[in-house]
Amino acid sequence: MSKEANSMIWDYLVFVIFVIASSFVAVYSKFFGPKETTKADYVFAAGKVSMAAMMLSIARGTLGVRSFLGYPSELFYRGCSMWETLYGMVLAYPIVCYIFVPVYFSLGITSVYQYLDLRFKSRLVRCLASGTYIVRQLLNQGVTVFTPCVALNTVIGIPYWASIMGITAVSIIFNILGGLKAAILADVMQGLTMIAVSVAIIFQGCIEAGGVSVVLKKNKEEGRLDFLDFDMDPTLRVTTMSALIGQLFMSLSIFGCQQNFVQRYCSMDSQRKVTKTLMCNIPVITVLFSLSWVVGMVIYATYSSCDPLTSGYIDEYDEILPFFVEDRFSYLPGILGLFMACLFNGALSLNVSNLNSLATVTFEDFLRPIPYLKGLKDSHQLYTIKAIGVFYGLIIMGIAFGVRLLDGVIESSMLVTSATSGPLLGVFLLALLVPCANWKGSAVGVIAGHTITLWIFFNGLTVDKPPTKILPLSVDGCTNTSFNSHILKPEHRGLEAWNIPTTTPNPYDFNDTEDPYDIINTDPITSNPLSQLYSITYMYYAFIGCFITVFVGWTISFLTESDSDVYDESLVHPIARKMANIFPGKKRRYLEKTRTDDKPRSSSMKPSASNSNFDKKNGVASNSHNEVPMQTLEVYKTKL
Question: Where are the residues of the annotated region Disordered (predicted)?
Answer without folding.
Answer: 590-624
